[in-house]
Amino acid sequence: MTRDITVRGTVAEGYEAVREEFTALVAGEREDYEGQLCAYVHGRRVVDLWAGDGAAGDALYGVFSAGKGASHLVAALLAQDGTLELDRKVTYYWPEFGAEGKCELTLRDLLAHRAGLVGTDAGFTRAELADDRAIAEHLADQRPFWRPGAAFGYHALVICALTGEVVRRATGRTVQELYEDRIRAPYALDLHLGLPAVEESRFRPVQPPLPTPEQRAAVDALRAGPHTLSAIAFNRHAAEPTELERLHDDPLIRAKGPASVGAVGSARGLARMYAAMIGEVDGKAPLLKPDTVAEFGRIHSVGYDLVTRTHKTFGLGFQATADLWYPFLGAGALGHSGACGAQAFADPRSGLAYGYTRRRFLFPYGAAPENARLARAVHRAALAVG
């Protein structure tokens, strides 16, 4: 059963159709729908909408993998600075990584999900999943699940721990520290890798997925066995199997902000981060130069993903968003989705930066399908307004 859900917030002149699209979307959702939509164009916020009982524009949600963009923005900044060199071997920064035949892997291939280190044979405890350094220590000793560089697969719970250990070895600082000092605080982003205790009151706990019987049957028919790459990558084979939708229930996950899945934020925070990546925001210079954006958005892995067993496309750390979901975006659009249904990206060619969050966990998880209609509406308005 559905009912009217009040849409709050503002849109700039020329973006009225986006409000209409968002309103139509939430009118067809369950009565407990809660979500946020935000967009910037050329550094100006043009869409800021939210809906749902108890929702607010500044409410904070677990955004899961949509937060991967934060840590890989740190990596892009360090590559731009010359602190990291993409074609250096990972062992140049992290000698212990070379165990079990991993000594030839480059940082470029690591960022492109080509390491073959999607998890460990034994899996991780909840405490280890909250600690990027603990994850990295276990993975350094792990034999890869395919020859590094030969194929790719989504390193869902660990990619930012791997990247983060390279960052830590190169700089002496964690990804979380660098993100806070160089990105989040200077640009006033409501997107956290480690939620401060004073912000806990704004956090909205994840609502569990509610699949239909047909959806459940379809997923169960294709469910991976307990020792497959998919199970290992999502830690379902561990003694304490991970229930992804419950991850942010743990205050340790929220407080420590493991960079692969632990980010907490709003649509405003996601969109503003990508806006700051590609353009000037509130008089502050873009974080990245166009050449850096192009390099990290350039497709490095495309085709059959060994973990998800679907077609996937990755740049360096980021998903190649136009190729994966939104063909109306320009070449080189880059971003990342989250298991809860969240989506965030930048389209450098149109100057669009987009963020979407929702409270109800998606089933099956990934970018929520409503993002296609919302992103298209924002993109169409951006082109029309110019």
Briefly summarize what is shown.
By secondary structure, this protein is of the alpha+beta class.
Structure description:
With 386 residues, the chain is of the alpha+beta class. 34% of the residues lie in helices and 14% in strands. The protein has helices at 16-27, 68-81, 90-93, 107-111, 126-129, 132-140, 159-171, 175-184, 213-222, 229-233, 251-256, 267-278, 290-297, 321-324, 370-385; strands spanning 7-11, 35-41, 44-51, 61-64, 191-192, 263-265, 301-304, 311-314, 319-320, 334-337, 343-347, 352-358. The strands form three sheets. The protein has a seven-stranded antiparallel beta sheet with strand order 1-3-2-12-11-10-9, with helices on both faces. Strand 10 (334-337) and strand 11 (343-347) form a beta hairpin. It is globular and about 55 Å long.
